[in-house]
From TrEMBL:
The chain crosses the membrane at residues 7-27, 56-74, 86-106, 126-143. InterPro entries: DUF4293. It comes from Hymenobacter montanus. This is DUF4293 domain-containing protein. Keywords: Membrane, Transmembrane, Transmembrane helix.
Amino acid sequence: MIQRIQSVFLLLLALAMLSALILPLWYKIDALTNQELTLTAFGFQAKGLQLPGTTGPVWIIGALALTSAAVAVYEIFQFRSRMKQLLLGSVNLLLITATLGAAFYFSSKGEQLLNMKLEGKAQAGFYLPTLALLLNLLANRFIRRDEQLVRSADRLR
């Protein structure tokens, strides 16, 4: 179970997605007006700026990241059914991609809320879904390799 390398990758994936919930995703500051805008997984946090009520459902980033982490943990314990693990890995690929897409979308919305001439900066939480995507691909590769090994052993019998 945990001794398999794909389980380690899936555990790291879950930790990366849970860390994306805590860390800020995007940050922008206007030094002239002392206004700051931070995007987290559950909303915008503004300092010195009045946010309009139509920033959208930013919490969707957090919901997608949390779901992805839960799928990864569930996938670890499905070690007896490699085909189910591969299916869950594909679902997780879609969830992580949706998390990245939502983060890009809401960071571009944040760009419009504060001085258009200044660019916001991606923070550590913004890059963690990309790391999770890589870890998911590696886990799926090793799961597929295990399945091929089992099939080749069945042919020898």
